Amino acid sequence: MTQSALIQGGSGGLGRALVNRILQSNQFDQVVVTGRNIQTIDSRDPRIIPIELDLLSDQSVVDASTAVASQIDKLNLVVTTAGILQDESLGLKPEKKLTDLSRSNLQTVFSVNCFGPFLWYAALGRLIRHREPITIATLSARVASIGDNRLGGWHSYRASKTAQNMLTKNLSLELSRTNPHAIVVGLHPGTVDTDLSKPFQAGVDPDRLFTAEQSAGYLWDVLSALTPERSGEVIAWDGQTITP
Description:
Elements: E1 4-8, H1 13-25, E2 30-35, E3 48-52, H2 58-69, E4 77-80, H3 103-124, E5 134-139, H4 155-176, E6 182-188, E7 191-192, E8 209-210, H5 212-225, E9 234-236
Parallel strand pairs: 1-2, 1-4, 2-3, 4-5, 5-6, 6-9, 7-8
């Protein structure tokens, strides 16, 4: 039976490391890898199917989902790595206080962290709506936990990831009604040494600052051990459930 995986944002950083880990597992016959620029996707492995996708474009989401559906019948693993915390070109950075909020920055952060991934899942349609085992994982963050929030700040990032977690729970319940084998989770990758985290690494314990390869390995171990009973949870790199 053909097994197919799809990694959104698999052209660099943690996404590429996850693609490599999935290929090394030899569990999948086809691995769809998306990127905003198809030329940045490493497609030397014959199992890789490169697809161009920009989650901020509704037309790109439609076109990409159509392209995926033209080449495979169903998906057994879907991982979405989309995330934005700051962008100097947009004047976007984590807010320290409420008066730092702006509508445009809120819209940008929510569009990338929350709207994009779940509009993507909606567009995939029948590819994820079947009765065979499937795992859908969206990268989340520990700072999205309301119960664990003791510092405040980072308003748009925290809120967008918290909203993402609610949609994760909703999708887990929706798919479970027709597929008891479906698993839908959020994944916290830890602090990964990528462009997203570089400005905020000063206070991080060196033992808890992971390379992309380390984090991908931890996340793959979590994914490999998941059961439907954990569907709807947000799970950290070490396998622990994060308080909502």
